[in-house]
Amino acid sequence: MSRRPREGARPAFRQWRAGRPFWGGLLLALGGVEVLLTLKASLDVILHVGMQGLAGYLLPVVMLLCGVLILFNPAQRLFYSVIGVLVSLGTWLTSNLGGFFIGLLLGVVGSCLAFGWLPDQEPRVSRRRRKEAKAARTAPHPLERKTGQTA
């Protein structure tokens, strides 16, 4: 049975996603969006006003930008993830306790995922396939007799 190449948008997206720290960049960008959205909350909801000047809006925008840059420029992921984690921690002071902790945690976890991502790794083999491969290696050869001698 020959395997023909898959066609369509979903396999193309999977291939694109496999070549970059997708979840790290996505979580960092979502953390930036969440912090930006909490800045627009009403005064009844805001817990900690912080510096409402430029830094309150600048840090979440930098988080969002670092997340997008990690997705589209994975070669520079280390620099963007370090900047992302520092900016995420900075939102604690400037933006409603880091977007009620949610944006802060999303940014830190996303940055750590992007920092730890390694390109060009072999795909992980499932436990079932490892077990099947081990069984195939240890199975007796069909030409062997029951006594263990070859014909």
Polypeptide structure, described:
This protein has 151 residues and is mostly helical. 64% of the residues lie in helices and 0% in strands. The protein has 7 helices and no strands. The chain has helices at 9-18, 22-39, 54-72, 77-94, 96-100, 102-116, 127-138. Helix 2 packs antiparallel against helix 3, helix 3 (54-72) packs antiparallel against helix 4 (77-94) and helix 4 runs antiparallel to helix 6 (102-116). It is elongated.
Fill in the keyword field for this structure:
single chain, 151 residues, mainly alpha, 7 helices
Tell me the major beta sheet: none
Order of helices and strands: HHHHHHH
| Structural class based on helices, strands and sheet pairing | mainly alpha
Cα distance, first to last residue? 32 Å
Specify Rg, calculated over alpha carbons.
24 Å
Shape: elongated
Number of helices: 7
Low-confidence stretches: none
Helix content: 55-70%
Number of strands: 0
How much beta, percentage-wise?
A: under 5%
